[in-house]
Design goal:
Recoverin, domain 1, two-stranded antiparallel ribbon, elongated, binds calcium ion
C-alpha cells in the first residue's frame, strides 16, 4: 500500500516537468512571486494534480482514478499530508522554503 503511494508521488515531478522548463515550473508554483516556494505554495500547486485526477470530484482518488487503475484510495488530506512530507524532505537547508535548486533535485 505504501509502495504504490510512493510510486505515485515519484511519478508526479516527471509529469510536471513534461509541461515546461524548471524555471517555468518554479514561477508557476511561486504564486506570490517572492522567488521562494513555501509549503502552502508547494501544496497548492501539487494538489492541482489531485483535482485533475479526481474525475468525480468527491475528494478521494479511487482505484479507477489512480494511474494504472490500481492501488489504495487516497483522500485529499492524505495527498496533502504527503506533499508536506515531501516539501520538508526537499527543504534540505530547513529554511521553510525551497529555492529552484532544491525544488529540482532528484528524489532520494
Ligand atoms: Ca513564494
Ligand atoms: Ca474520486
Amino acid at each position: 500500500m505504501r509502495a504504490s503511494l510512493a510510486a505515485l508521488l515519484l511519478w508526479l515531478p516527471i509529469a510536471v516537468l513534461a509541461q515546461g522548463t524548471a524555471s517555468a515550473l518554479f514561477q508557476a508554483m511561486d504564486s506570490n512571486g517572492d522567488g521562494r516556494i513555501d509549503e502552502a505554495e508547494y501544496v497548492a500547486y501539487m494538489s492541482q494534480r489531485f483535482y485533475l485526477m479526481d474525475r468525480n470530484h468527491d475528494g478521494v482518488l479511487e482505484q479507477d482514478e489512480l494511474p494504472g487503475g490500481r492501488g489504495r484510495p487516497i483522500t485529499l488530506k492524505e495527498w496533502q499530508d504527503n506533499l508536506r512530507r515531501e516539501f520538508h524532505k526537499l527543504d534540505r537547508h530547513h529554511r521553510g522554503y525551497l529555492d529552484e535548486r532544491e525544488l529540482m533535485q532528484p528524489p532520494q
